[in-house]
């Protein structure tokens, strides 16, 4: 094994020369693959920051092709599961090394051009986080394998082994993190499962690179099947299969709810109860105490709300600020916002690129237009948007008189930050709004220099966030350091990047071996 007992996170590397060279290329053809079967491309993707420039051609699988993928996966799973976990871990380490060196900048360039991430956001995601996922899962699995059940005498040996699940796992990944695509599909595979991976159409290029790298590392054909297709068609087909053993999902609440209901409807068909793991976003908050450090609040909020155009699941979208600090924080937010450069990601001086596609542009700009018309809302910074070249929306800051206004309660998933200024005397009352105003509980942050209040807030806001930050932004969880996930309508809180995540995709088997003959059917007390 190539795993060390001490695990450290992957270093961030931004290579301008290499990236600039890779950022110039012709569209790549992305084809569905089942074993060695390729289909021809029929659709195309463009760059979000330049929607006239095609970046990839691809094909949507039909229900028949998805069923073929299921058949391939079910057959491959039995052979793959026989592969010793030590061998699988070696493949994962090889894949991580390929991602770290040979293909690092290919992954970064694909993420920049396909998902309109700035160079640093791409490096954090498609290099560092993706590599960390592949490396640390092996560390956690090795640690889990150390557990040995108690064997009370030398006449008995108890053991536990982790099998793959009987059937196939469906992985449905989002556009916003290349690393999530790799984790959702390949962590179940590591545990002996075969996977149908439906990538987001808007992250096809980077996800295709992951698939190719893992095949080069030694993941056998049929273990992970790359299946671009229309979401409802994929959902209908996989949930109708008796071999469905699990769904690993990141996306919207309505989509996850639909999958869950379809599974419930089809329960009588399944060989197993499918495991459902989902992360569905949130309405993340920054809550500012009157004792907070203003500069920390300003910088943390700007980065959380506007990096990658607020398209991180954990991005700050609502903020609560005391009157006593409002003037200083307002000045800081607005002056910093003015410095943010939005544009083509091939310009390394930009802060953020474009939002992901026309649908996102329409949704986000709709909230901005709502703010312009509402008497409860005031746009104090930004508010401009333009899709003539790319889907560009300026970072927008809004204030609200109504803490329950829809812009404070609904997920926007864009560069829109709404602020409610509360009276210092209404601190306790305002804290209650954090929990009561939205159905989500993904990430949240408090800013304070008052240790006693921080302890109190940790308890009172306990169920408002699966990832909670004190004097730091609500984004930026690191694999192995802050395992990620939320509860309520934010998901099943299975903590990707944590020690138990991989085990969710195993079917443990307890084994008892007895070394002495069994001689008596009765018990001593029965003989008196």
TrEMBL record:
Its EC number is 1.2.1.88. One of its GO terms (biological process) is L-proline catabolic process to L-glutamate. It catalyses: L-glutamate 5-semialdehyde + NAD(+) + H2O = L-glutamate + NADH + 2 H(+). The keyword Aminoacyl-tRNA synthetase does not apply. The keyword Thylakoid does not apply. Keywords: NAD, Oxidoreductase, Proline metabolism. One of its GO terms (cellular component) is mitochondrial matrix. It is an enzyme of class 1 (oxidoreductase). GO terms for molecular function: L-glutamate gamma-semialdehyde dehydrogenase activity. InterPro entries: Ald_DH/histidinol_DH (IPR016161), Ald_DH_C (IPR016163), Ald_DH_CS_CYS (IPR016160), Ald_DH_N (IPR016162), Aldehyde_DH_dom (IPR015590), P5CDH/ALDH4A1 (IPR005931), Proline_metab_enzyme (IPR050485). This is Multifunctional fusion protein.
